[in-house]
Amino acid sequence: MPCNCEELESRERDAMAPYAQFSVDSRGRNVPEPRPEWRTQYQRDRDRIIHSRAFRRLDCKTQVFLSGSGDHLRTRLTHTMEVAAIARNIARALRLNEDLTEAVALGHDLGHPPFGHSGEQALDNLMRDHGGFEHNRQSRRVVELLEHKYPAFPG
Q: Does 124 fall in a domain?
């Protein structure tokens, strides 16, 4: 029998440290929606990131520019998958919420502009009079405003 949301949340209570962020304690969503039946709120968040257009575009963004190609060519997607694996392992070792940790790790680079940190610096200079540009804030804007997966609300 598959685990429903309540069973998954019960497993969290049994496995995670008391200082961890439990799915049941999520502050909710900007737009009210029904509780997931077969996954936790943070599992749904993680899945939404994985299925977003912004996440898929990470495969087209180069992480490090090197001369030549081959196995040294890196994309933001491969970097993000490695960050997620490391973050999950750390969360597991510290008995934190692995799903929340993975969602944060998978979404951490969604707001990077083209040309890496040089592009971010150029945008920051251009936007200085309007609050600047910072890729972490842009990542949040991407998942909350720019993605249009649902007809009733953005994100």
A: yes
Please tell me the pTM assigned to this model: 0.85
Residue 12: inside a domain: no
**Per-residue b or e along 2-28, where b marks 16 or more CB atoms closer than 10 Å to that residue's CB:** eeebeebbeebeeebeeebebbeebee
Report which DSSP code applies to 52.
S
What is the CATH classification number for the domain harbouring 52? 1.10.3210.10
β-bridge mates for residue 28, sequence order: none
13 falls in which pLDDT band (50, 70, 90)? very high
Residue numbers of the domain that contains 131: 40-146
Distance from C-alpha of 96 to C-alpha of 99, rounded to nearest angstrom: 9
Tell me how many domains the chain contains.
1
pLDDT digits (tens, 9 = 90+) for 97-144: 999 999 999 999 999 887 778 888 999 999 999 999 988 888 888 888
Whether 29 maps to a domain, the answer reads no
Residue by residue, DSSP assigns 90-136 as HHHHHT--HHHHHHHHHHTTTTPPTTHHHHHHHHHHHTGGGT---HH
For residue 98, tell me if it sits in a domain: yes
